[in-house]
Amino acid sequence: MSTRRASSLRRRLLLGLLTPLLTLVALGGITDYRTGLQVADDAYDYALTSTAIALAARLELDKDHDLDVDLPAAAEAILRADASDQIFFAVTDVHGRLISGDPSLLELAMPPGSANPGFRNVRRGAQPLRVATYHYQGPEGSATIVVAETTLKRQRAARTVLASAIWPNLLMCVATLLIVALGVHIALRPLDELSGELDRRPPDALGPIAEGDTPREARTLVAALNRLMARLQQAAAAQQAFISNAAHQLRTPLAGLQTQLDLALDAPPEQAHARLAAIRAAAARLVHLTQQMLALARAQPEAAASQEWQRLELSALLEEAAGEQLDKAIAQDVDLGFEPAPAGVNGSHWLLHEMLANLIDNAIAHTPAGGQVTVRCGLDPAGLGFIEVEDSGPGIADAERAHVTERFYRVPGTRRAGSGLGLAIVRECVERHAGHLDIATAGNGHGARIRVTLPTA
């Protein structure tokens, strides 16, 4: 079975914030980069347009009334001068004849009717160019002026814009994360204090945790811990009571066993058999009590959770009980009868078997010789499974029915030896199966009838 490594709440919060923050940084950087790059391109395009207009201002008619450019060599040198990029230009008349400049730019001119001036990016060989086309119309005539430059300073500007867009956003992201980390640390401090308080508690301190300044979001956790503490406190109290009662119950048969051993050692040989029989009976009572206490312990919620749950047929459980309890019933001259009917439930075989065994054992023990014990199972009108044990003994008084399922409780005036755990075990088994236990008078008007109702599978 694979296990996932648990991460801290702080780490999960910071990682949860990091993704949207980085996304915002990326979107902000892209937006700033595109905006800054557009501003830089507009500035450089304006410079190209100014160059084209300056060339247009040099247009004039020669002596043959043909369009010409009055551009001395010094002026051309100034026009082409640039610290980073190379400048190219070409001027053509209305017929496409080159008047001045670089012939290779003729094919890069944008046709009339497009934006004026118009711009585009082209590549001439391995060299990227930014090209501006300006269609001029004036008293001298019409001309097309193409100005192009390499893109080194544009690329440098792009890198500068990118850096100026990314670094501030990254620094803002880091600063935000630091502030958020500090805020998370402060916000989670009550949980750290709660953890420290629990660590400092001694093992026997099961009282409730004071909410104090606990944030509203953590109060449900504190409330759940307090409920757990209350259950642990109840379990500890029940365990202590069980141990005290068990010690008290074991003391009597152990003392009796010791007394019988002392008497057997001092008794004459002709009384040895009787003394050994008494010792055997005391040991049997001690074994029975120990088994009852172990069964009660296994029926507790903590131990019952480890039991295997499966679909069980109640009639099959009755058949098992018949084989185990029949000899005891015969020995006590009790007529033990079974009336099984099909009924399937989902539960623990051991718990239900122990429950049924204690019900039958308790009924046989309280039924006088010649009496009857009847065990039934099946489905009731509501569709629930049931187990019913009815005897012809003295029955259980109404005032005692609420107490007979308590641990080590014995009805006052009862002479029969017993541990007082039988019906307590039955109650625990019924509760583990979300069933219902009902104690009533038998159908014949005397005796007891104990009925257990269980959800069907």
TrEMBL record:
A cellular component annotation (GO) from this entry: plasma membrane
One Pfam family recorded for the sequence: HATPase_c
Family annotation (PANTHER family): SENSOR HISTIDINE KINASE YKOH, SENSOR PROTEIN QSEC
Gene Ontology terms for molecular function: phosphorelay sensor kinase activity
Subcellular location, record wording: Membrane
Domain annotation HAMP: ranges: 185-237
Enzymatic class: transferase
Protein name: histidine kinase
Main location: membrane
Catalytic activity: ATP + protein L-histidine = ADP + protein N-phospho-L-histidine
Its EC number(s): 2.7.13.3
Keyword Phosphoprotein part of the UniProt annotation: yes
Record keywords, A-Z: Kinase, Membrane, Phosphoprotein, Transferase, Transmembrane, Transmembrane helix, Two-component regulatory system
Residue ranges of every copy of the Histidine kinase domain listed in the record: 245-457
Superkingdom of origin: Bacteria
InterPro entries documented for this protein: 2CSK_N, HAMP_dom, HATPase_C_sf, HATPase_dom, His_kinase_dom, HisK_dim/P_dom, HisK_dim/P_sf, Sig_transdc_His_kin-like_C
